[in-house]
Amino acid sequence: MAEKKIAPFGAWKSPITPDLIVAETIMLREVTVDGADVYWLELRPKEGGRYVVVRRSPDGRTSDVTPPGFNARTTVHEYGGGSYLPANGVLYFSNFEDQRLYRQTADSEPQPLTPEADLRYADAVLDAKRGRLICVREDHRDASREAVNTIVGVDAEQGGEGDVLVGGNDFYSNPRLTADGPRLAWLAWNHPNMPWDGTELWVAGVNDDGSLRNPRLVAGGPKESIFQPEWSPDGSLYFVSDRSGWWNLYRWNGEEVQPLWETTSEFGLPQWVFGMRTYAVMANGGLVSSYEDEGESKLAVIEPDSGRRREIHTPYTDITGLRVHDNKAVFLGASPTEATAVVELDLETGANEVLRRSSNVEIEDGYISVAEEIEFPTEGDATAYAFYYPTTNKDYRAPDGERPPLLVISHGGPTSASSSEMNLSIQFWTSRGIAVVDVNYGGSTGHGREYRERLNGKWGIVDIDDCVNAARYLVGRGDVDGERLAIRGGSAGGYTTLASLAFREVFKAGASYFGVSDLEALAKDTHKFESRYLDGLIGPYPERRDLYVERSPIHHVEGFKAPMIVLQGLEDKVVPPDQAEVIVEALRKKGIPVAYLPFEGEQHGFRRAETIKKALGGELYFYSRIFGFDPPDSAEPVEIENF
């Protein structure tokens, strides 16, 4: 074994470069099946962030279905999801550029179904008996009012804007038909709730003319979150509810709701996008389900009538998007050493086959940092959670006595969660000698409703406490250098980053990706889906305007002392660019070192290869200047004002 080179932490040369990450990596989304065909979405940075529907046929052939010039992405709720539906060999999808629904057969170009109007569609299901799609529609045609969300029926061949079937609520999702089409189920909720706060599960009969009759509330309410309703072949309705404090599985038999598995594990997810799934119904009425248990996804087959459960052991610690066909489960699977892949698993033998990998990069184990789940004490005698990634590079070691810088990641949402799946963007840092801790602060999902509600009324307090205490915990263990702590995050995580630097003096640098600097401005200028989100996280606006001012970094510039790099998409409708621009200008005037990287053509979350490369390279260069090491690669310099 060759002797390791000695170099300071941060200055290690790594094979995991920005070029390699964008050249060989895609993002995988929304697995589904149509007969024996398996479909999924690929987000391709090298194609300008285009979403492409891909089909794998039973003979093993894989082909693109979405032709060049089309982008299968909806912007309902701005975040989208549920953007396509393959049904009986026909593909229906929402096109990003015009948000129209399209119909595509195997031998033709996509044809528009919906008119040229400010209408958006998502989460479709085929009503074959009546020749229509039933889906969520978001109507933006009246700019003087908030967008109107409804469930509509759209003729599957002739098209049209859609006939409203259900309306009156602020939000809808998951329209689902029984196999023979006589009953429709759906979820609904209203401001100020988000879907993880409280939703309602409704069922109605479907008349021969397509109209609905006798709508009935089955479960849910303002304090009960329902997730993913699905019909069984026998006509019973499965769904996930957190009525016990944990998202568990239930069944409605037409008269009463029965628990299928009561446990302190999570079978649900925060519904940021349409089409999220944690379980699938098999032809015999049984379920195959993933669930979160102690930071890892597990997989089980459940027999609802007998109550028997059979765990299926897999190499994957993160399992989402479950579908089933021919006694095989198809899902997105990942582990600490494997990036996300489309996986097909035999439910009898447990044998699995990878159908598509998000990355074809083959990296030696000696450069891969494996996540360690840590629990650490935090304010209020509480326990918080995180994944810690130590520095790992088989070619290097640091000088004796040196400890590595630490990069604290505050995830977005904030109602979301980090997982232990192998992420090349994290390995980019650890393989260069910068340790990473990815914090599941109070408010994160995966640990029950009580943990999720720790953030209620306390955004900008609990999240900061937990990020600070994660860093202090690792400093106390002797893992990292307490004088070289940095924090980074995107969106809500960008807010936590900015707030941590404004209100604490723990971190020596920060990187905000499209982060929130002015909570009041966000309350006044954001999209419908999140327009009342802050009511729960902070307080009602304008009644509690004092809290919005008190917790907004822009109003506490005097607290900033550490250098910042700010990165922003200029077409972001969720966190508008002025959120970045005002904080950058304020730091300039105060004399704080600040770098600003705006990106034309990017929305909320970077999708283009050139953007991802420039962002990673620029952030590395920024830390190298702040923490005093020579970057191992020829990182493109960024201007750091006041430095």
Strand order of the largest sheet: 30-31-34-33-35-36-37-38
CATH architecture of the domain at 5-17 and 363-627: 3-Layer(aba) Sandwich
Beta-strand residue fraction: 35-45%
Which blocks of ≥5 consecutive residues have pLDDT under 50? Answer: none
Would you write up a description of this structure?
By secondary structure, this protein is an alpha+beta fold. Among the domains are: 5-17 and 363-627, Alpha/Beta hydrolase fold, catalytic domain (Rossmann fold), CATH 3.40.50.1820; 277-358, Beta Barrel (Thrombin, subunit H). Helix content is 15%, strand content 36%. An eight-stranded mixed beta sheet has the order 30-31-34-33-35-36-37-38, with helices on both faces. Helix 5 links the parallel strand 35 and strand 36. The longest helix is centred in the C-terminal third of the chain and has 19 residues, at 609-627. The radius of gyration is 24 Å and the shape is globular.
Brief overview:
The chain is of the alpha+beta class and 643 residues long. Among the domains are: 5-17 and 363-627, Alpha/Beta hydrolase fold, catalytic domain (Rossmann fold); 277-358, Thrombin, subunit H (Beta Barrel). An 8-stranded mixed beta sheet has the order 30-31-34-33-35-36-37-38, with helices on both faces. The chain has a 4-stranded antiparallel beta sheet with strand order 2-3-4-5, with no helix packed on it.
